[in-house]
Amino acid sequence: MKKIFLTVSLCALFAAGAMAQGMKGGIKAGLNLSNITGDVEGTSMRTAFHVGGFLNFSFSDALSLQPELLYNSVGAKMSEFYEEEEVEVEVEGTQVLNYLSIPINLIYSFGNFNVQAGPQVSFLMSAKQKADFMGISLDVDNKEAFKSLDLGLNLGLGASFGKLHASARYFIGLTDVPDAEGDFSAKNSNIQLSLGYTLFGE
């Protein structure tokens, strides 16, 4: 599935370059509201960020394809309870997952507004688990516990006012991110709120 996903994404990008009537590019950044969903308990939304750039290939006034390159920080907050000498102790922590993400979205515009959808491939750059336990703070590198590649889909809405752009997307993870065998399922999900600015092009 990973090979098919990557092949389709690359074919779409090369086709856009060949067929595009115009190209523009710029920078973007914004807020991530992420979580890890599936066979997990005690997780809640983590607030983080993304930053990077984009290219936009126009096929017509309404249709375009937009690949992006983003530094993307996601993960989840976690809370677990343990029995310690007949006393229940809550351990609160955060799983931080930092990716280099490449979303490729097809954008359909109507007036100043648009809808967008497309695949995203992400390469894991770092992973850390942070926790507070009985006054002790822990910060552990656990990159080896996660797969190096994450695949998913983006669905979103956007608006464009001259060189300024805004978008809201929901990322649906398709990959079980823990590097473990068995039927255990845990996938990234992310609400991404972005502002962008066109630096060059039409």
Note the topology.
Elements: H1 2-19, E1 22-38, E2 43-44, E3 46-58, E4 63-84, E5 87-110, E6 113-133, E7 136-141, E8 149-161, E9 164-173, E10 186-201
Summarize the structure.
The chain has 202 residues and is mainly beta. Helix content is 9%, strand content 71%. An eight-stranded antiparallel beta barrel has the order 1-3-4-5-6-8-9-10.
Question: Can you tag this structure with a few keywords?
Answer:
single chain; 202 residues; mainly beta; Porin; eight-stranded antiparallel beta barrel; 1 helix; 9% helix; elongated
Molecular structure report:
It is a single chain. The longest helix has 18 residues, at 2-19. This protein is 9% helix and 71% strand. Strands 1-3-4-5-6-8-9-10 form an eight-stranded antiparallel beta barrel. It has a single domain, classed as Beta Barrel (Porin). The radius of gyration is 19 Å and the shape is elongated. It is built from one helix and ten strands. It has one helix at residues 2-19; strands at residues 22-38, 43-44, 46-58, 63-84, 87-110, 113-133, 136-141, 149-161, 164-173, 186-201. The protein has 202 residues and is mostly beta strands.
